[in-house]
Amino acid sequence: MSIVKVIEVIASSEKGFEDAVKGAVAEVSKTVKNIDSVYVKDMKVHVKDGQISSYGVICKVAFRVEHG
């Protein structure tokens, strides 16, 4: 039987949404093995002086739990 666990993470980037998701995956990959998928739950931007200053994402990261 295979077990999949899901964690929720928040990441941001000054470049864009795609970069924020890539950053989330890179950071989670440092401590979590067997990542299967990432679901972007929510996206937002921060605005400063009428300009977008950063992009943020809330992601659900799914990974298989190893037996043993």
From TrEMBL:
It comes from the Bacteria. SUPFAM superfamilies: Dodecin-like. It holds the Pfam family Dodecin. InterPro entries: Dodecin (IPR009923), Dodecin-like (IPR025543), Dodecin-like_sf (IPR036694). Transmembrane segments: none annotated. PANTHER family: CALCIUM DODECIN. This is Dodecin. It comes from Chitinophaga caeni.
